[in-house]
Write a structure and sequence with these properties.
Elements: E1 2-8, H1 13-21, E2 28-34, H2 45-55, E3 64-67, H3 75-82, E4 86-88, H4 96-105, E5 115-120, H5 128-141, E6 145-149, H6 159-168, E7 172-176, H7 180-189, E8 193-197, H8 203-207, E9 211-214, H9 222-235, E10 240-241, H10 252-265, E11 272-274, H11 276-279, H12 286-300, E12 304-308, H13 317-333, H14 358-366, E13 374-378, E14 381-386, E15 389-393, H15 396-399, H16 409-428, H17 450-453
Parallel strand pairs: 1-2, 1-3, 3-4, 5-6, 5-12, 6-7, 7-8, 8-9, 9-10, 11-12
Antiparallel strand pairs: 13-14, 14-15
Helix pairs in contact: 5-6, 6-7, 12-13
Length: about 475
């Protein structure tokens, strides 16, 4: 059985041991080593390198060493130094059960089946350089194909140049227009896909090599889409079919049923689903909308999705779509619920926002003997404590007068920022960790250098003049 050594500090040791004792049927034995510091989050790799040999004889008798999640430094170098794998655990002790459960599942989120077509809806109004710049950003967010959206009664004189510039950049390109002549121009310039052809404009597909996306004459005209599909099948040409997703409350449910009937009638046809009518036209967080729609895509074996980033609230739609397709593909492949695979689509709330109870926080606070302020959040509010006692409240303005920082500008600024973050976390139901930015999932890119946020240390002195 694997033997794991957990490294921690004075304050966290009792809590860590309680959590480990509660891991029923854990497939490992364990021991806890207090590295000789109060706050485990202040642990560094250099500190571990110096202090661990004073606590345990070398070589370390363990199969793995787990250090606090906020431990700074190069843990891979520690692995080489001690000859034992060294791994960061979760940021919070109470996440250890989920940490080991997720590691046991080891679901791969690198795989997906749905291609993302990212539309540049105002392409005719942009220069070629601007189109290429935006396309690169979309690809960085997960797009597979850049869709050039043509505008009614708006000249797109540089359409060919745009297609060729994108192709020269190594990108796949589609041209999206209801004007057959624009589709012809795009196809002749080298576009990979043309959106969209009806039974009346299928002749365009005979003129160019681009793969067409077929749509019905009107969204409810399923017979016309079926006719177009059968004609393309007879020609032996590749294509995608789109039954058109209607917005709420103008036929959304009926359109989902159309996609279901399309799949039943044509089991092997490549289907495209355009999600913009939901993400752009529904004033709700798009991460949840994308999760639901890509779940439908997984069930219907949809080959491609067309998405946009126009409305301000949909400005992360491509990145969300990329995560949604991976998560839903993994869930569908493993025949499991889309739970515990990733929290990147949980942009507003957290599944386990408050790991500590007020009583547990009070017990930790009672053990503190220094003037440094700690901030924690429970279901009942914000908790701020140091050696001078524990304060509890519902927000920054309520707690601020109790801190006595009127003459310490730098610390006042620091505590103001921390209390504001803690208040936001409490009101939304997000996880708060002192000296760390809030986690907004894939809506905000994680800071690559968390040490920059932690420059003052895990806590600042309550009053430097003491």
């Amino acid at each position: 059985m694997e033997h794991i050594v957990f490294l921690t500090g004075h304050l966290a040791q009792p809590s860590l041991e309680r959590v480990l004792h509660g891991l029923n049927d854990a497939p490992f034995t364990w021991e806890v080593q207090d590295l000789g510091l109060q706050v485990a989050a202040l642990m560094t790799s250099e500190m571990i390198r110096r202090r661990l040999p004073q606590l345990m004889p070398l070589p370390v008798r363990a199969d793995r060493i787990i250090v606090p999640g906020r431990c700074r430094g190069d843990v891979e170098a520690l692995s080489q130094h001690f000859g034992v794998p060294v791994q960061r655990g979760p940021d919070e002790l109470k996440d250890l059960p989920r940490f080991f459960n997720r590691a046991a599942q080891a679901v791969n989120l690198d795989e997906y089946e749905v291609a993302i077509f990212a539309e540049i809806v105002d392409a005719p109004r942009l220069t070629v350089a601007q189109i290429v710049e935006r396309a690169r950003a979309h690809v960085a967010d997960g797009a597979n194909v850049i869709d050039l959206g043509c505008l009614p009664e708006t000249a797109f004189d540089h359409l060919e140049d745009a297609v060729q510039a994108l192709k020269a950049a190594g990108l796949q390109v589609s041209v999206d227009s209801m004007d057959a002549q624009e589709l012809l121009r795009g196809g002749r310039a080298g576009a990979d896909y043309l959106l969209s052809l009806t039974p009346d404009t299928l002749w365009v597909a005979d003129e160019v090599a681009a793969t067409p996306v077929l749509i019905p004459r009107t969204p409810a005209d399923e017979a016309s889409l079926a006719a177009a599909i059968e004609q393309m099948q007879a020609r032996g040409r590749p294509f995608l079919a789109d039954a058109i997703l209607d917005p709420i409350p103008f036929g959304f449910t009926a359109s989902i049923c159309r996609y279901q009937r399309l799949r039943e009638r044509f089991p092997d046809v490549a289907i495209m689903l355009g999600v913009g009518n939901l993400t752009e036209l529904t004033e709700a967080d798009t991460s949840g909308i994308n999760a639901l729609l890509f779940g439908i895509c997984a069930e219907l074996n949809v080959a491609a999705v067309l998405t946009t980033q126009v409305s301000g609230h949909a400005r992360r739609a491509i990145r969300e779509a990329d995560w949604a397709r991976r998560i839903m593909h993994a869930a569908h492949t493993h025949r499991s619920l889309p739970k515990g695979l990733s929290d990147r689509l949980m942009t507003v709330h957290a599944k386990h926002p408050f790991p500590d109870t007020p009583d547990e926080i009070a017990a930790t606070a009672a053990a503190v003997r220094d003037p440094n302020f700690r901030v924690q959040v429970s279901a009942e509010g914000l908790h701020v404590y140091n050696r001078d006692g524990l304060r509890q409240g519902g927000g920054a303005f309520e707690l601020w007068p109790q801190l006595g920082l009127e003459d310490d500008a730098s610390h006042a600024f620091y505590m103001g920022v921390e209390l504001a973050h803690a208040e936001i976390a409490w009101k939304l139901g997000k996880r708060y960790v002192q000296d760390r930015p809030l986690d907004w999932g894939c809506a905000v890119e994680a800071d690559a250098d968390n040490d920059a946020w932690c420059a003052p240390g895990t806590t600042l002195p309550a009053e430097r003049r003491r």
